[in-house]
Amino acid sequence: MSDTTVVIVTGLSGGGKASILRALEDVGYEAVDNPPLTMLEEMVAPAEPTPGPRRLAIGIDARTRGFDAADVLAAIARLRTDPELRLQLVYAWADESTLLRRYTETRRRHPMAPQGVVADGIAAEIALTELLREGADLVVDTSGLPIAELRRLIERHFGTGADGAQMAVSLMSFAYPKGLPREADLVFDARFLRNPHYDPILRPKTGMSADVGAYVEADPDFAKFFSRIAELIELVLPRFVQEGKKYATITIGCTGGRHRSVYLIEKLANHLTQRFTARQADGGFVAPWRVLVSHRELAMDDKTQASGVDRPVARRDETVIDTDGDRAAQALSVQA
Question: Which residue has the higher pLDDT, 17 or 242?
Answer without folding.
Answer: 17
